[in-house]
Amino acid sequence: MREHALQDYIKTWGYFTNWLKKNYGEIQAIDQLTTEVLRISINYMERVAKRIMDA
Questions:
Q1: What is the pTM of this model?
Q2: CA triplet 37, 20, 29: central angle to 5 degrees?
Q3: Which domain of life is it from (predicted)?
Q4: What are the residue boundaries of the structural domains of the chain, listed by start?
Q5: For residue 40, what are the contacts with CB-CB under 8 A and spacing of at least 6?
Q6: What is the mean pLDDT of residues 15-42?
Q7: Given a cut of 90, is residue 47 above it in pLDDT?
Q8: CA distance 44 to 20
Q9: What whole-number distance in Å separates Cα of residue 33 and Cα of residue 52?
Q10: In sequence order, which ranges of the chain are alpha helices (DSSP H)?
């Protein structure tokens, strides 16, 4: 894996975990994630990525 790709994955994971803590702080384990929460997070990440790319 290239270093740039790894850095992108780390950044994306940080966006996701920050969003999750802010919006669903009660979730403490992966088995607590629901399909709905994952769909909402994907929509959020799409908006974040668009803002970053447009900046």
A1: 0.76
A2: 80
A3: Bacteria
A4: 3-54
A5: 23
A6: 95
A7: no
A8: 10
A9: 26
A10: 3-23, 35-54
Tokens of 25: 């702080």
C-alpha span between 52 and 27 (Å, rounded): 27
Q: How many Cβ atoms are within 10 Å of 41's Cβ, its own excluded? A: 17
Q: Is 38 helix (H, G, I), strand (E, B) or coil?
A: helix
pLDDT average, residue stretch 29-45: 95
Q: Residue 19: which residues within 8 A CB-CB, separation 6 or more?
A: 41, 44, 45
Please provide the average confidence, as pLDDT, over all residues in the chain: 89
User: 45, 12 in Cβ contact below 8 A?
Assistant: yes
